[in-house]
Amino acid sequence: MTNSLMQARDAFLSRFPEQRIELEGRDWGLIDTGGTGEAFLFLPGTLGRADIFFAQIEALAPHRRVLSVSYPDSGGVPEWSASLAVLLQRLGIAKAAVLGSSLGGFLAQYFAAQHPGLVSHLFPGNTLSDVGAPRTHLPYSLDLWQAPIADLRAGFETSMSAARAAYPDWAEMFDLLLTEAGGRILENELRARLDAIKTGPELPPLSNTADSATTIESVDDPLIPPPMRDAVRARNAPAAAFRFLWGGHFPYLLRPALYSNILKARLGLEPLSPDWVLTYGIHQA
């Protein structure tokens, strides 16, 4: 059966293929749309390569030099944060807007706290404020470097297959994510991503202003419970907050146009969509 989401991603990759770049002895993947203007950097979650944000990259590419990365097969949040600073310096980028989702959102917050002068706007999306709770749950409670990779992949397949059955309208998205978990993300890259959450550091304080940060969340996110969403908003205050009333853990895949509108509106590139309604200080759609 045809999967239009994967077809769109593959068409995107034909125009913006992922390249390899070595940063501090580690092999990263990088999509770089090129150009010399202001920059935007995307940081994926556990189940996404650099191209997982293909819809948002295409939306921003006419306006920004857009970068998106795939993580290496070793290191964790502190090491990756340092390497991202090296990446921007090597590319001659003084500042970038930075969006991370899930694992990437945690990394984005750490990076912005460690290198505030490099971040023009911080977008933590569907993410964590600390990693204490995940450490006690599968698969993070396992020895992630010794557990059979088939077992780790099977855990993702079981949970996503159940979600696919519960949300048949989202089947294309789950099929795309299953290809990521099933081998498109290489073994040690997947282990490193999981371990980066398990060993994640305490987040340092942020220096956000109301105009320099934006949080994104979903009411129906099965992985980020309401208390954690509250904590992310509190840590990032006085950042503007946007909440999808539906979109699960991957609103950038399920509601790509509206997700892109958040980014472009907060960067002053287009008006905010009228679908967004300000309720209790949070934009909701």
Structure description:
Keywords: Cytoplasm. Residues 39-127 form the AB hydrolase-1 domain. InterPro entries: AB_hydrolase_1, AB_hydrolase_fold, Maspardin. It is found in: Cytoplasm. This is Maspardin. With 285 residues, this protein is an alpha/beta fold. The chain has a single domain (4-129, 202-284), classed as Alpha/Beta hydrolase fold, catalytic domain (Rossmann fold, 3-Layer(aba) Sandwich). The protein is 40% helix and 18% strand. It contains 10 helices and 10 strands. It has helices at residues 4-15, 54-60, 77-90, 103-114, 149-166, 171-184, 187-198, 226-236, 251-254, 256-266; strands at residues 19-23, 26-32, 39-43, 65-70, 96-101, 119-125, 214-218, 240-244, 277-279, 282-284. A 6-stranded mixed sheet has the order 1-2-4-3-5-6. Strands 7-8-10-9 form a 4-stranded mixed sheet, covered by helices on one side. Helix 2 links the parallel strand 3 and strand 4 (65-70). Helix 3 (77-90) packs across helix 4 (103-114). The radius of gyration is 17 Å and the shape is globular. 42% of the residues are buried. The model has no long low-confidence stretch (mean pLDDT 96).
